Amino acid sequence: MTDVHRAEPGLDDALTYLRDHADEHLQQLDEFLRIPSVSADPARDADVRRAADWIVQQLTAMGVERAQTHETSAHPIVTGEWLGAGPLAPTVLVYCHYDVQPPDPLDEWIRPPFEPRYEDDRVYARGSGDDKGQLFMHLKAVEAWLRGSGKLPVNLRFFFEGDEEVGSEPVEAFIAAHPELLRADLCVVSDNDMYDDEGTPAITYGLRGIAYFEVRVTGPFQDIHSGQYGGGVANPANVLVKLLASLQDDDGRLTIPGFYDRVRELTDAERAAYAELPFDEEAYRKALGVPKLSDGERGYTLAERLSARPTFDISGLWGGYSGEGAKTIIPAFAAAKFSTRLVPDQDYREIERLVVEHLTRVAPPEVRVAVKVIHGGAPAITPLDHPGVQLAARALEGAFGKAPLFHRSGGSIPVVAALDAGIGVKTVLVGFASPNGNFHAPNEWMPLANYRGGLDALARLWAEMGSVSPDRLRGSA
Ligand code: BES
Ligand code: ZN
After folding, report:
1. Residue 7: what pLDDT?
2. pTM of the predicted model over 0.70
């Protein structure tokens, strides 16, 4: 084991800086979380931009060079770099996203989502965990090195996105157009969670991909009386629910031909590792308030189904009458949004094609069915023996006093696979949010213990990564 303290005397200065500036940093976190950077809402475009500008200002103030925003087809991308460690030191790309999910339903928040509340050693706010809180931690860990010790042990580039929550549409084109701004031996992403709320750190070595759709079934030219026309005119809502239900069989598998062709099966070793991970299924059920957990796909454990198997979920369903009382109609249309989560080695573009073809093929002739692809992202997996994984594990253990557990996440972060495919940069995911922290939900929160421990871990991470050669960090030596 490398002695980080001997190799990097600056680490102590960085850690001292973090302690000395803790209050000031929390005030800045507050300021950042107050910006309602909701990427899905066009009315918030100016706020999303304000969040990007806020980051640029932070980066510039701490001595990061060429910090700037870039216009894209959607919201701005922020980049910057600090290359003062020289060509013999590795270069790491840091990615996080500064956009957040819509805060609805607003009336379920105990305090407004953009007025952070500090309680029980937690910070409650939209984006506290996903992902502005974690982005902010990266800013402060870098500031601690640059201000506390005057330099960093690694060269860093920054890549902050404002469209992650809406599918990262601009990312692929940006990577292709600006490889020089992103080139690195490794990418570090913090947009995920720790293992539990007992301070067990985690390294997320896999992410699911996604393909997201909207389907619209159209019938008569307007709503019509269900007594006058029922029995003679197909009901678009009936057709829609039947179509959607037919996408899954009784074993919990998708019925779309070809859907599983590229699914990488879990190896026996992986299944054994999954079985070793602590997972209290009853506590998990209780926390969700469901009477029973779903059986899901037959033949796989809950933990496997949650991250290593594809899924199908309807996110929204509308059409017809949903007001007070009853209204007897055959609605003119019915629609739904749904997604399939994908696993290695499924190709989201192929899945998009298969889903559209399938729905078009099975659509009954009495209605018109239109399927729209909303967004897609590829699944990703980082080999556990990648040197970056081992270095990150040491940094986490140093900060939290416990070795991290290795798990795959069921969520998606499209940039991870896009960086690998575009410029051959692998990613290590170190996350500090809580697995129970209400991502995308009312009363999102981040444990402040994770925030403090995460700052410590990120400061250590740069010492760890600075102790190896670029080739070694890349995994090619
Ligand atoms: N932070 C999440 C992804 C995540 C969730 C990682 C839970 C680990 C644990 C990210 O912000 C997210 O929500 N991504 C979207 C991507 C989609 C819009 C393409 C997702 O997974 O739904
Ligand atoms: Zn999210």
Report:
1. 54
2. yes
